[in-house]
Amino acid sequence: MNTSHPTGRAAVGPAGHRAAVATETAAFVAVLDGADLSAPVPGCPEWTLRDLVRHTGSVQRMFSVLLRRLVQEPPRSREVELDLPAAEDGWAGWLSASAAVAEEAFAGTDPDAPMWAWGVDQHARFWMRRMLFETLVHRTDAECAVGRRPVIDPVLAADGVDEFLTNLPHATPFAPQVARLRGDGETLRFRCTDTDGDWLVRLRPDGFGAAPLTGDAAAASADAGVEGTAADLLLLLYGRLEHGANAFTTTGDAELLTRWFTNSAF
Fold this sequence. Notes:
The protein is of the alpha+beta class.
């Protein structure tokens, strides 16, 4: 997947995440115009396009409930009022309404308000950022389902790579295979070729962690590495592309890369 001209990575922040949720949802809704909702979704095996729409809108509505309540502990139930459409031609409007529910929740919530989150950032802004990348990745899934070639803004894509790598160590409750990512100091490097995004992951006996590489640290070597555009790296981390694809340059320990990608998807 190719994106537009190279650009430097910039901090996106809650305001950017909020705006991008609306933009990405609108792009998703546009895909549904005239689409066969029973079409399979390549990026989500066993799902139809209808399933993808329902999942994306449901996530937006569920996260919105968490934001409005500023929950301080993991919710005991994920059940929320979905207001599902009564007719088959209502799914596009329902997804648009889901984004409106999210926008209302964003407007009434301080991004810096402390709240429970499954990832690193225990503030409301975690859920705004998480909602964006749930929506963005599934927007690309929808486009692939109807035969379109997705395009992702490089700055958003780099932010998404950072969000994924930062939070992945905490994803074991719903992605238990992540617990297999252990080691004795082995390192993997993920570098964007069209932005300044550059990260080093270090495997430890008790887990792993990721940190941005900047300045002199960016010259450090790693046991294995993958380079590609920010958009391609984002889709790679989410399992939509293979690391052996022509879009990527890989270096170092091939077995380490295979182990990472076998256990890191969620």
